[in-house]
Amino acid sequence: SFLKLRNFPFHIKLVCSQAAVFFFFFVCLFVCLFSLLQGITESFGAAIHALGASQLTDGVINRSKRMMLDTLGVGLLGTRTAVFNKALKYRITFCRSSSIWGRSDITLPPCYAALVNGIAVHSMDFDDTWHPATHPSGAVLPALLALAETLPSRPSGLDLLLAFNVGIEVQGRLMRFSREAYNIPERFHPPSVVGVMGSAAASAKLLGLSPSQCSHALAIAASSAGAPLANAATQTKPFHIGNAARRGLEAAWLAQMGLEGNPSMLDMDVGLGVYYNDYSPSTMPDCASGAFRWILEDQDVAFKRIPAHLAMHWLVDAALAARGKLQEAAWNFDLSQIQRVTLRVPPSKYINCPFPITEHQARHSFQFNACSALLDGKVTVASFDPAQINRSALKELLSKVEVKTPADNHPSFDKMYCEVQIETAQGESCTARCNTFYGHWRKPLSQEDLVEKFIVNASSVLCTEGVEGVIDVIGNIEKVTECSVLGSYLRMTSNTLEKVYSTGMI
Amino acid sequence: HFYKLQKCPTIKMLRSPTPEETVTASFGKFISKVKPQHLSSVVLHRSKRMVLDSIGVGLIGSTTEVFEMVLQHCKHMYGHDNICSVYGKRGIKLSPTLAAFVNGVATHSMDFDDTWHPATHPSGAVLPGVLALSDMMPASRKPSGLDFLLAFNVGIEIQGRLMRFSNEARNIPKRFHPPTVVGPMGSAAACARLLSLDSSQCSHALAIAASLAGAPMANAATQSKPLHIGNASRLGLEAALLASRGLEASPLVLDAVAGVAGFSAFYEDYKPQPLDSPHDGHAFLLEEQDMGFKRFPAHLGMHWVADAAASVHKLLVGVGPGKISPDQVQDILLRVPLSKYINRPFPESEHEARHSFQFNACSALLDGEVTVQSFTPGAIRRPELHALLSRVRLEHPHDNPANFNLMYGEVQVTLVGGDILKGRCDTFYGHWRNPLTNESLRKKFRNNAEVVLPSAKVERLIEAVDELDRLDDCQDLLSQLQ
């Protein structure tokens, strides 16, 4: 309409139209900038929320009704198929119940017990880590314990331990099919790729499935594998382990009911190979032959001392060492004298977070863990409380941190190192380096320290009898006649503690 | 000179290794056969340490917020609330997630459900979840038919948008089965919409669903394939419910972030685009790109060769007696796109048969059409069909891309006398370029639904869907399904 300013004097017309053009330009720029700033994920969320019935056109209404009709029809017909009946039969597993660790008042169908217990295991990033990288035990144990409680065959402790090891071994074998797996991940979160396979293998073992059924359990599980790394450092990450446990168990049950998948799932690039850029599978040796050797025999796991991503452990050890050195060198050393902290770490985007806000981000932040160590002289479970994360002293120290990724620092849990350099206002500089933290497979936790970690953790919800019962059962598991006794100890809560945790939440 | 023969996995596969030789079988065998005595003392010791540590961290982890949230979710979802209908199964009700699962499996069980471009099966991933969610809602607060229809369309739209982020998606898939990639996302979006979640929760629902996405193509043409759709529907529903309880995930899951893959993990090339805020001119993709509906229960690619072969059948039957005899046929040449998982010379199961150019062409050549009955065990094992199958050759012309929008199917039959008969199909009836009429669609629905429901219910279903946008209460739809 500014083009129709016919009745105005020419010079004013020109000014008005120029102004209008500039205005239009800035509006466009603003809209572009806004949409750039908004982020694609956000735009999808906004659209899903805001779309209203008024946006449905006749064309769309008509076509979508045809789609619904057709879908209902094929669905109704499909209820006559074998595969449907197997899926329906699957509901039987939901009539059984299994224990929830640390709860005396509730049980759930085994798949969901496996889910929630698996989530618990990975909820604080405190569970074991292997090389090549994954969190092997959390994907397997919750499924096995849940399954064991429902089996009429009442498996022994040794049955449980064997199945557990099958689940670990399969994960280890699968990771060795790809060179990519040896480095800190970038695309798929490893527990979501191999974890579900390990759970399926372990569950199949405990169920006593035939060789063919075991293969199909793996094939079915593969269709449940693979979650993107982007959900690491968020509240959803623990679901990767929970779902691995759950869906592996599901796969084994479905295989038992006769469901079949692709019998060459592990052989094909379009099978498990889809999760890797390079994929070179090899057969598993006959376990009866002399050629078979458990991977766990040669490659131990790392147990964490801190509930944070494994890489943080090198960093914390280095930061504590540097802090110690400074305190020794200058007896009136005070943290406010720190001018700059330089961290030399391996390159990995998802654990490089300069100013974490949530506990999940904090557990995946080189900067946060280094600063916590420097401030407090230790990093513990309590270091990730919201109050601790939000401390102003911590935030101030965070602003002095610089991260460098030297070329010789390889993003692999077998080869990486961390270095912390502290420079003070007085011009002093102190550097410490950690090549192998205490708890790494090259420097394993002593049995005493491992049990101590367990006691501290378990005592947060179990009474003494429960804590000691679990230690006893696991310690002697090869001789335990019925492994489901473990479930009863896991439910021995201290009543007061249970009240504290289950009320006032959500 | 010595040349070392390089190990080539594809060559291994062509040789059809015996079960004992495959990697997968070796794993199966190991799992099944390994015994306690195979556990060494080192392994015993180390694994017990792992078990102990794992339980300990699990116990302390049971005090976390995320754990509590999920526990409530499971209690609520999987208690004894068997409230959701199962298609065609009077007297059986399941929890919402299981109902979505089994109904999704039913929908894809015969590969009879709709197909879109870029390629996926959009409705089966969305409808079961939305139905289950509607069943969950109290009787006084059921969604209206229009709310239901809107949620359904949101689920379809999101899938379409996501597939347009990658050129790879335009072609017949090779790596991940598309319903497993975009299906959970669509289901999550639809359920989030029906639950009226806020924008942030909707984003989180998508992000949670992304961690549940992705299954390899290798399970296509097996009995497990239908679970891809069942799981897409179920897991998307779960993602939305978890988001409604406050679970959070990556706020950048759809965006391209170098070094940390989100939804991009499932594609080789990935260029995401933001979705426009809805406004009164918002064009749903379904407006521009219609849906393909299948006339018989097999992979979409089969429909081209079946139509082409049917036209040759007509020519042959016109010439002589009503039945085709394999003895008349010397050679059958199929000109089809190159796609490994639908190239099966001698399928053995119904699942393989639904994914076999050769099988569908020969069935149509023999019978004049392919129907639900063509895939029964008896039909699959017919000797005259087998005779025809052994005369088939495939060619993959350069102008025939593996793309549902561009491909064609050609059948060339050389008779024993030397005559050559040709049939070609560029667009089968049911493709989005040549859509089924409403009568044809209803006829297909009646044929299907009447196998498990009484006619009265079948007609009421047709009516309810037809009037869906005018129904005050979608209960009218929900109550006719079983």
Automatic annotation (TrEMBL), chain A:
EC number: 4.1.1.6
Name listed for the protein in its UniProt record: Cis-aconitate decarboxylase
UniProt similarity note: Belongs to the PrpD family.
Quaternary structure note: Homodimer.
Molecular function terms from GO: aconitate decarboxylase activity; protein homodimerization activity
One BP annotation, GO: regulation of reactive oxygen species biosynthetic process
Source organism of the structure: Xiphophorus couchianus
Short name of any one Pfam family annotated for the protein: MmgE_PrpD_C
Superkingdom field: Eukaryota
The keyword Chloroplast belongs to this UniProt entry's keyword annotation: no
Automatic annotation (TrEMBL), chain B:
Record-level Gene Ontology MF annotations: aconitate decarboxylase activity; protein homodimerization activity
MmgE/PrpD C-terminal domain span: 296-469
Enzyme Commission code: 4.1.1.6
Enzyme class per UniProt: lyase
MmgE/PrpD N-terminal domain segment(s): 27-267
Any one GO biological process: tolerance induction to lipopolysaccharide
Reactions it catalyzes: cis-aconitate + H(+) = itaconate + CO2
Localization (cell): Mitochondrion
Residue runs in coiled coils: none
Complex formation: Homodimer.
Protein name in UniProt: Cis-aconitate decarboxylase
Protein species of origin: Xiphophorus couchianus
Taxonomic lineage from the root: Eukaryota, Metazoa, Chordata, Craniata, Vertebrata
